[in-house]
């Protein structure tokens, strides 16, 4: 995409500030390990790399600490007075120096149809799939931000259908279902995302309240199988919530 290529070429990270806990410090629940301050777009470009650098190390360190605690607690109740020594033998099972890329590659070999890893998609020619970030949802505040947005849904023969303004359609379903206690900002974000990706629309519905998300009805008039697919990918409670009201095959 030319616009995105130009955006990347002119990227300016000078306004980004990164705050982190000191290396090796104990992290308690709900205390952020890293805090990124800066423009939203740049922050989201940095997000995957930062999460990769934090998630795996914190996973291993946390599990290791739990094992040490468990081993010492067990040793307390035994006749053995020596402090237990623990060693890891994980090298042969680790994901390798390029774990994310390897996971994408070998998942494709195993029969997967797509990946969210853009680099793997480019190098290995794997179909790219994905969704939006929770931060994307949180940037929208009002339905007025998307009142004129429209989308053309692809027909079964591959052609594009007539453009439809989505907000009135969404409001119709919300009124029909009497779901007025939903988050307008969340709904606005979904409408915006649907307009950008009408034929590969897949949303994250757990930013605020999963069971109150009305957006799953967005394309009921156009592509009801898509609704079934989304419901299959999320918790059974959502499926059970919708089944009494609608039927699809």
Describe the structure.
It is a single chain. 44% of the residues lie in helices and 8% in strands. With 249 residues, the protein is mainly alpha-helical. A two-stranded antiparallel ribbon has the order 1-2. The chain has a two-stranded antiparallel ribbon with strand order 3-4. The two termini are 36 Å apart.
Q: Secondary-structure blueprint of this entry?
A:
Elements: H1 2-9, E1 17-20, E2 34-37, H2 40-76, H3 99-109, H4 118-124, H5 134-138, E3 150-154, E4 160-165, H6 166-176, H7 184-196, H8 224-233, H9 236-242
Describe this structure in a few short sentences:
The chain is mainly alpha-helical and 249 residues long.
Distance between the termini: 36 Å
Shape: extended
**In which order are the strands of the major sheet placed?**
1-2
Largest sheet: 2 strands, antiparallel
Q: What class do helices, strands and sheet pairing give?
A: mainly alpha
SSE series: HEEHHHHEEHHHH
Question: Ranges with pLDDT <50 over ≥5 residues?
Answer: 214-235
- Rounded to the nearest angstrom, the radius of gyration is 23 Å
Number of beta-strand segments: 4
